[in-house]
Design goal:
47% helix, five-stranded mixed β-sheet, alpha/beta, two-stranded antiparallel sheet, elongated
Length: 384
């Protein structure tokens, strides 16, 4: 008997099998198995299949979600991508800063959606964004070569700086060398204020002392506070006479405490090491930048839109305490804040400097800054 014939035969006896009594059911089943060659349990399942009621799906536990709708998820996803995919705790703080500018480029949001986005918790943000979160696995090369010439003249920072005031900064460089450190290529200089997290980046062609000092001068001129301390690693771009003269040949009221970290202790400069990832690698990746034309293009991006976006609209967390319990560490962080808001709260920033910061903030639109950054990145990567 062919497949079509077995199917027709099954449809003919199925209703009769259901209405029959127990003895007749046994005879029909025996006949069905003998004619079609089926196993007994398989034949029973075929005969009863249309009459079985599908079990209703169990209702998920807990309250019904009010966030899994496109009107809430779309602006949340847009802002998360515009903030360089920051974590949920930082995004929770960033949402009130970005939502007032959302309507300019993406359309109006209803008051109900705005209220939901302002009330959303970090855990809910993680659940909603889980399917679209990006994963980064690339690793770069370390370009720090020890400079032994001036190690005795530049002291290791052993005392704890007064990080309750802005001005004490850490510095480091990032190599845009691709898979090889040979030849000439672009480096990124990163300077981070320990108190506020205010970060400035500049591009260098090679690690020459003159170019490094020139960019450090440019950064100091653009800082909204006075530079009080400069701490770096043991690389030759920092341990040189040019930088020592720059920090020492100045009036007493402008003196800068110049210190270095211990060799092979990366955590001595943990604040700037973190910014090397969030401010450089996440922006430019791990490609090799071996064209000198890229330096002015990168400095135009670093010194304008990128600096404003990072320091005015992207919150950061600060470590409050660190306690070791057996083999584990328990860390506590403060509420995420932008470097701009931390400077406004500081009593060491003058009222004139605070007014200048507020005037700058009122002129900015984070989505416009983000779009300009993307367009400038396209111009940069044409030469990569």
């Amino acid at each position: 008997m062919g497949r079509k014939e077995r199917k027709v035969y099954l449809n003919q006896i199925r209703l009769r099998y259901r209405k029959a009594g127990r003895k007749l059911k046994t005879k029909i089943l025996d006949e069905f198995c003998a004619v079609c060659g089926y196993q007994r349990k398989y034949a029973i399942n075929l005969l009863w299949e249309p009459f079985r009621r599908s079990k209703p799906k169990a209702r998920p536990r807990g309250c019904k979600s009010i966030y899994k709708i496109e009107s809430v998820l779309n602006p949340l996803k847009t802002i998360w991508l515009a903030t360089n995919q920051i974590c949920s705790k930082k995004l929770k703080v960033a949402l009130p800063l970005w939502l007032p500018f959302y309507a300019n480029g993406y359309g109006d949001l209803s008051s109900d959606v705005v209220n939901k986005l302002l009330k959303i918790s970090p855990a809910t943000i993680d659940r909603l964004l889980k399917p679209i979160k990006a994963k980064y696995k690339s690793k770069g090369l370390c370009g720090t070569k020890p400079g032994s010439l001036l190690k005795n003249q530049i002291p290791i920072r052993t005392d704890n700086w007064d990080i309750d005031k802005p001005g004490f900064c850490e510095a480091d460089t990032v190599a845009h060398c691709g898979n090889s450190l040979s030849g000439d290529f672009v480096w990124s200089l990163t300077l981070t204020d320990i108190y506020s997290g205010w970060t400035e980046n500049r591009a260098l062609w090679g690690k020459g002392a003159d170019g490094t000092v020139e960019q450090i001068k440019n950064i100091e001129q653009n800082l909204p506070f006075k530079l009080l301390g400069f701490d770096c690693d043991n690389g030759t771009e920092f341990l040189n006479y040019h930088l020592i003269r720059y920090f020492s040949n100045r009036p007493k009221e402008l003196m800068v405490q110049f210190t270095r970290s211990r060799p092979y202790h990366k955590n001595d400069n943990a604040h700037v090491e973190q910014k090397n990832w969030t401010h450089v690698r996440q922006l430019l990746g791990y490609d090799r930048f071996a064209n000198a034309v890229l330096v002015p293009l990168m400095n135009d991006l670093y010194g304008n839109e990128y600096c404003l976006l990072q320091n005015y609209f992207l919150p950061a967390m600060k470590l409050v305490s660190k306690e070791r319990i057996n083999s584990k560490y328990r860390k506590k962080y403060d509420v995420p804040k932008t470097p701009y808001h931390r400077l406004l709260e500081s009593e060491y920033i003058t009222s004139e400097a605070k007014e200048k910061l507020m005037r700058t903030y009122k002129q900015l639109n984070p989505f416009t800054l983000k779009n300009n950054i993307e367009s400038k990145l396209k111009g940069i990567f044409k030469y990569v």
